[in-house]
Amino acid sequence: VFAIAPLGPIGGQLLAGFHILWIVLAASLTKVRGGATLTGIIKGFVETILPNHLGPFVFLMSLVEGVVIELAFLQLKGFNRIAILAFAGLSSASNIFVLQAFRLLPNNLPFSIYAVMYVVSFVSGILFGGYLGLKIISGVQPHSNRI
Fold first, then answer.
1. How far, rounded to the nearest angstrom, does the alpha carbon of residue 128 sit from its chain's CA centroid?
2. Residues 18-54: pLDDT tens digits?
3. Largest CA distance in the chain
């Protein structure tokens, strides 16, 4: 699994934020409670039925990602760019937590590798899930209240 990632387990996290993009967009554009969680469920179901190396765990990862974004929007009671960026980063990094919780990552990795994986995934979530998501939303809704 890790042989296909150019930087090993860290390389797989470089683009992790793109998984969050769809959840941020759905939650932001619909503004419906439960929208982020439902998007995570649908995204997880689609990823589960497509070929993937994680099997059914990809569903759980997507669900957790959706719940984390949902918590952001429940806490915000409106829109706050910084909070959306932070929660997009946390949501992206949550996939590593799921992988560790179900022992899908090698146990012999040094702590520093795990730490770098979390940081890279968090930054990817901020950039590709949060920032890009907010830019897309402001382009789709140019005359509404900007986020």
1. 9
2. 999 999 999 888 888 899 999 999 999 999 999 887 8
3. 52
Going from the C-alpha of 9 to that of each of 13, 54, 107, 122, 123, the distances in angstroms are: 7, 14, 12, 14, 15
All residues at 6 or more sequence positions from 113 whose CB lies less than 8 Å from its CB, including other chains: 8, 9, 10
Choose among 81, 63, 62: nearest CA to 72: 81
- Look at phi and psi of residue 77 and say left if phi exceeds 0, alpha if psi is from -120 to 50, else beta: left
Q: Can you tell me the distance from the alpha carbon of 100 to that of 55, in angstroms, rounded to the nearest whole number?
A: 15
Model confidence at 110, pLDDT cuts 50, 70, 90, reads: confident
Q: What is the pLDDT of residue 128?
A: 95
Q: What's phi and psi for 136, nearest 5 deg? A: -65, -45
CA atoms within 13 A on the CB side of 75: 13
The region, left, alpha or beta by phi > 0 then psi within -120 to 50, assigned to residue 80 is beta
| Triad 101, 23, 32: Cα angle to 5° | 120
pTM exceeds 0.90: no
In this structure, what token pair is assigned to residue 18?
A: 């793109």
The single-letter code of the amino acid at 16 is: A
